[in-house]
Amino acid sequence: MITLALSKGRILDDSMPMLRSAGIELLEDPEQSRKLILGTSRSDVRVVLVRASDVPTYVQQGGADLGVAGLDVLLEHDSHGLYRPLDLGIARCRLSVATRADFDYASAVRQGSRIRVATKYTRLAREHFAAKGVHVDLIKLYGSMELAPLTGLADAIVDLVSTGGTLKANKLVEVERIMDISARLVVNQAALKVKREPLRALIEAFAGAVTAQPA
Ligand code: PRT
Ligand code: MG
Questions:
Q1: pTM of the model
Q2: Counting atoms of ligand 1 from 1, which one is nearest the CA of 183?
Q3: Ligand 2 mean position to 51 CA, how many Å?
Q4: Partners of 2 in the beta sheet?
Q5: pLDDT of residue 125
Q6: Given the DSSP bridges, would you call strands 93-100 and 172-181 parallel, antiparallel or unpaired?
Q7: Are residues 85 and 188 in the same domain?
Q8: CA nearest ligand 1 atom 5, residue
Q9: Fewer Cβ neighbours under 10 Å: the N or C end of the chain?
Q10: Do 142 and 201 sit in the same domain of this protein?
Q11: For the chain, what is the radius of gyration of the CA atoms?
């Protein structure tokens, strides 16, 4: 049996067409069902539904043989022992810095200055500002990051942006793009040895689906 870890929402939505073109159909609609383990049209493949940020843990610890996770999650998490064979090119977005429109970001990030940054991505934010020589006071949040600059909790946020609609609705401006993000296929290294042939075939099917995708 091969176990694939996916998260509900954009990762699952964007993975479904890829699975389909790899010849795998879910036997139940995940949005209708409350089940966390879903069978597929292939009797040797099942899907487990986990939180987006839990996908690397499941795959690292062997709770799943492979999974789909955002690059943001993989870089923020310790990805030791994960084989990362493919950029799936789905769930695309960017990791950016945003501030209030009246905040002078250019001055705040001069060498040796200090900035208060609220984010879920403390590791990535710390690395980004350290590379600039900027002292950063990090405030770890788990959601609604946009609120932090509006309430005076922080000067800036580091968060994912796709359409920019959320920033705009909260009168924030994207002042710096840190990196482009997309979802990656990750595979448990031990599983790759034990279930070599079926996993190779599945990875190849995913690779075929990547090239088949419209840009
Ligand atoms: O929701 P949960 O806490 O379970 O986990 P999660 O929020 O990490 O999961 P999910 O499903 O929201 O995101 C899964 C993955 O999708 C992320 O790890 C990213 O790799 C990718 N992705 C792509 C995004 C976005 N686009 C995105 N726009 N993840 C989140 N967003 C959020 C962003 O944080 C912000 O709140 O959408 C908002 C901005 O969107 P725009 O379109 O208004 O700019
Ligand atoms: Mg979410």
A1: 0.95
A2: 20
A3: 9
A4: 45
A5: 98
A6: antiparallel
A7: yes
A8: 52
A9: C
A10: no
A11: 19
Q: Which of 109, 106, 141 is nearest to 122 (CA)?
A: 141
Q: Which ligand is closest in space to the CA of residue 174?
A: 1
- Decide: 210 in ligand 1 pocket, CB within 6 A: no
Residues forming a β-bridge with 26: 40
Same-domain pairing of 166 and 108: yes
pLDDT means per 10 residues in the chain (215 residues)?
Answer: 97 95 93 95 97 98 98 94 94 98 96 94 98 96 98 98 98 98 98 97 93 73
| The pairing of beta strand 135-140 with beta strand 156-161 | unpaired
Report d(CA 17, CA 2) in Å as an integer: 19
Ligand 1 centroid–CA 29 distance in Å is 21
Structural domain count, the chain: 2
Give me the residue label for tokens 């609220």: 118
Q: Is 181 in the pocket of ligand 1 (CB under 6 A)?
A: yes
Domain that holds residue 140: 93-180
214 close to ligand 1 (CB < 6 Angstrom): no
Q: Are residues 26 and 87 in the same domain?
A: yes
Q: Strand locations in 107-154, DSSP E?
A: 114-119, 135-140
Q: Is 73 in the pocket of ligand 1 (CB under 6 A)?
A: yes
- Of all atoms in ligand 1, which is nearest to the CA of residue 181? 20
pLDDT of residue 215: 64
Our answer on whether the CB atom of 7 is closer than 6 Å to any ligand 1 atom is: yes
Scan for tokens 């501030």, then name that residue.
99
